Amino acid sequence: RGISREPGSRWTEPGCQSCTCQGGRVLCDTVSCSVPCSHPLPAPAGGCCPTCTGCLHEGVARAEGDVFSPSDGNCSVCVCLAGNVSCLSPECPPESCPSPSPGDCCSCNPAKCNFRGRTYAHGARFSLDGDDCTTCVCQGGEVECSFTPCPVLDCPQHQRHLGPGQCCSTCRDPPAPAGCFLDDNGVEFPVGQIWSPGDPCELCICQADGSVSCQRTDCVETCPYPIRIPGQCCPDCSAGCTYMGRIFSNNETFPSALDPCLSCICLVR
């Protein structure tokens, strides 16, 4: 290649070819690399052989003496020394731990609970001596008990009732109505009471369930001149007659308002 080489000289050609001059001939062969480490770094620019000054671990270049944790998250600690990566796992105690968490490196078995002659697993829930009003839970070898929460009642205290075997009170059913209570005037009528609410033609009765049932009275006039009595619904045809705004009793005679020569008599029929 236009360059003179001394006999026995050795040099490197591009492409990592190692060449030597022997007896006027050039002999070339691929450079043979001896890598004395487990995680060498790739050859630097212009070089042919990997270097053990640093480490390549899981595709990440680590400097000499670098301490790191692997990506698998098993809590191991690794160090880069002369191209070699050494990892150490933490030593975990053989006994169980009280409250394991997902971030702990040591896998542990939560302690069981021995409570009143029985053994419960961690996280187990049970009642206290068959009493459903108390709930207990095993947490890392210790038992915690608490009362069962009760719902909030919307009835007054005197209507609350705690039945046999129940943990929480319940509201009693309201007592059966003893009558009908009217909000407009504050009057309470007993069951079966009949009254008029102000209109003499309307009658109401207090039902057994506390409701009020009302009904109007239909009047049938049986005479041409009935008498209307205040406070009475239907006109009265038996008491006398009404004539020109005046009331006359039965068999009463009176002059006609239209003709003074005429005499009228009230006849109830």
From TrEMBL:
Subcellular location, principal: secreted
Native source organism of the sequence: Urocynchramus pylzowi
Lineage top rank: taxon: Eukaryota
SUPFAM superfamilies (alphabetical): FnI-like domain
The keyword Metal-binding is assigned to this record: no
Listed Pfam families: VWC, VWC2L_2nd
Stated name of the protein: VWCE protein
Biological processes annotated in GO: cellular response to virus
GO cellular component annotations of the record: cytoplasm; extracellular region
Keywords: Glycoprotein, Secreted, Signal
VWFC domain segment(s): 1-53, 53-114, 111-172, 178-238
